[in-house]
Design brief:
Number of domains: 1
Order of helices and strands: HHHH
Radius of gyration: 27 Å
Distance between the termini: 93 Å
Largest sheet: none
Amino acid sequence: MDNLVREVLNEVIRLSKHQPGRRYEEYEELVELRQRLVDQVKENDHPLSEMLKESIREILSYDTVILERMAAYKLEAKEGLLAIEAAKRQRRVYDMPSFEEGFLFDEKK
């Protein structure tokens, strides 16, 4: 478990540093890694050492920064989906068949 805690801590520190060009998949991997840690802590029958507890507290101290970055990715994805939907609506309006082409009306006098 010590290795997993160190791995999660290193990943959290790495992702908390602002670097343009990060992929959202890196945050997904962090979530999966943290989940593995949570599962191991739950399965552990022995109390955690003070060193492990301190490392976990340090991991938790980065939560705000990581959550802000994840929220930014979520907002970016939402805006992208809205733009795609707007483009689809515009395309549908222009691709609709015109009724003027298919109908002729004769007026009887």
